[in-house]
Amino acid sequence: MKKESGPVRPGIRLYLSDDGSEGMFGDGKWRLLRSIEEEGSIRRAAEKLGRGYRKAWGDIKRTENALGRELVRKTRGGPTGGATELTEFGRELLEGWQRYREAVMEGMEGAFELHLSGLLERSEDER
Amino acid sequence: MKKESGPVRPGIRLYLSDDGSEGMFGDGKWRLLRSIEEEGSIRRAAEKLGRGYRKAWGDIKRTENALGRELVRKTRGGPTGGATELTEFGRELLEGWQRYREAVMEGMEGAFELHLSGLLERSEDER
DNA sequence: AATGGATATGTACGACCATGCATATCGGTT
DNA sequence: AACCGATATGCATGGTCGTACATATCCATT
């Protein structure tokens, strides 16, 4: 089981927290929100992302509890069985995070080139 | 077991990778290198950081394998039992990472203020 | 009231990982 | 040669986390 291996690159994991730990909100939850907005249902959103409904549902719930606000408005029953859409707050968080994320990643690329790429490229040759 | 809970703040985890996964190098390994430089031994470095020697030793080894270069020079035996010091590459990585890390974190703070703090502060009031 | 598709939630199992325990090895000094 | 403190490693274990399985609930439409 060999892994893909290329040049050394910088990676990043961003999240929001009120106690220093991860789990409150991050890229995973962000993709989930985006998928819910597109699909209109937690189940289809989860399927599209290749996760189980159980996890997606739990993620939403834990995030809402942690933030103290609702991210989605859910309905059950009816001809379609039910549906889920983002609240206004959910949409704002989705968009704010997207901009935030892109800004930080750009900064990361720049800082990497500035402070580490030289050392690591040189390293590639010498090894 | 209640957790400390304050305002929502941005968190970050930085790492180096050649295959998208974490584990090659990050803040944990960086602190370990710094501690080794200060203490002159893996054992004392680990103790100072509150980890076991077993883990510290394994971390160094895995990182060296992943980067394909040696980070430390180790000696065994003698009156002191042995010692470990950083290689030139180890020192450069230590310093480069420190500068890289600080630059990215500053960028993160700025981006957070710009794109998310307004939304989240407003959220604090309303909840 | 019967249906169907989605939400809601507990439970269990397996993979992964951090940590600790035990033990072997090394080698300059005494 | 004995000693001592650090390096070197395997192995067992305990907890976390993702994922799967099983059910229960809901309700507009028919």
Instruction: Provide the CATH top-level class of chain A.
Output: Mainly Alpha
User: Whole-Å distance between the termini of chain A?
Assistant: 23 Å
Across the major sheet of chain A, the strand order is 1-2
Count of DSSP E strands of chain A? Answer: 4
CATH topology of chain A: Arc Repressor Mutant, subunit A
Q: Largest interface: which pair?
A: A-B, 46 and 46 residues
Radius of gyration of chain A: 19 Å
State the low-pLDDT regions of chain A, or none: none
Mean pLDDT of chain A: 88
In short:
Chain A is of the alpha+beta class. Chain A is 58% helix and 17% strand.
In words, what does this structure look like?
- The structure is a homodimer of 127-residue chains.
- A two-stranded antiparallel ribbon of chain A has the order 1-2.
- The first copy, chain A, has one domain: Winged helix-like DNA-binding domain superfamily/Winged helix DNA-binding domain (Arc Repressor Mutant, subunit A), CATH 1.10.10.10.
- Chain A is elongated and about 65 Å long.
- In chain A, β1 (9-17) and β2 (25-26) form a beta hairpin.
- Chain A has helices at 27-39, 42-49, 53-67, 88-115, 117-126; strands at residues 9-17, 25-26, 72-76, 82-86.
- By secondary structure, chain A is α+β, with helices and mostly antiparallel strands.
- Chain A has 5 helices and 4 strands; from the N terminus they run ββαααββαα.
- Chains A and B meet through β1, α4 and α5 of A and β1, α4 and α5 of B.
- The first copy, chain A, binds a DNA duplex (30 and 30 nucleotides) through residues 41-44, 51-55, 57-58, 61, 74-84.
